[in-house]
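Appendix B, example 12.
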Amino acid sequence: MEWFVERYDGSGLMISVKRKIAETRGIQKIEVYETERFGKMLVIDGKIQLTEFDECFYHEMLVHVPLNSCRKAKKILVIGGGDGGALREVLKHDVERAVLVEIDRNVIELCKKHLGIDGGAFEDPRVEIVIEDGRKFLEHCEAFDVIIVDSTDPVGVSDPLFGRDFFELCREKCRIFCSQSQSPLIQKEYFRKMLENSSVLKKRAVFLATVPTYPMALWSFILAGDYDFRYVKRNFKKISGKTRHYNPEVHFSAFTLPEWLKKEVENAY
């Protein structure tokens, strides 16, 4: 038996793998594995991005929390997310246009060929795919109803997506913003950086989800802008039966933070 091991700050996660399905090197090192228990697994630069087992826990929270908190979401921008999971969830809503901006074409090509979690989203006529740095794209793009950031860790090609100037651009280009914001337990430096730099956003809130194959399983997200929870139940009716993890009860409870995390968030303002 072979093991894939991801290490982080004195701890780690071991996953037994049957074989490596694919690998490519370019801007990033991208690998796809077949695991013993969790289905196929995407790894970028040594970090687990998803497994088929629990990717819906992450993608459904990243997408449905902001879109169900919006009165009308017709134009959506997804920055990152080359695996197609977030795009798949976006298209469950009544959107007119969805733009995916991914810096690394190899992520899209490998995921389409070997994972297929997009469920055909890449071929949907409402979708436009742009291969470009997400921050640079924001400098010249039109405004969107919602911007969703589905990035890797804030190092290398993803680092510009965690800077204060990036959040300032997002503030000008959308009504509602949502991004993953790392593990507040084991990636405290990344999480604090995200909190500090995103303080320029309007009406910001942190919410949580459990993603078993992410560091320490507790994952955080930031929601900001003109979101309003009075639309959640109404909007959920349109996607009811199409989710495995997300529902309105999970939505509301995700914003209930433990005391230690409340203090962390308060200290960042």
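The chain has a mean pLDDT of 96. Residues 2-51 form a domain with the Spermidine Synthase; Chain: A, domain 2 fold (CATH 2.30.140.10).
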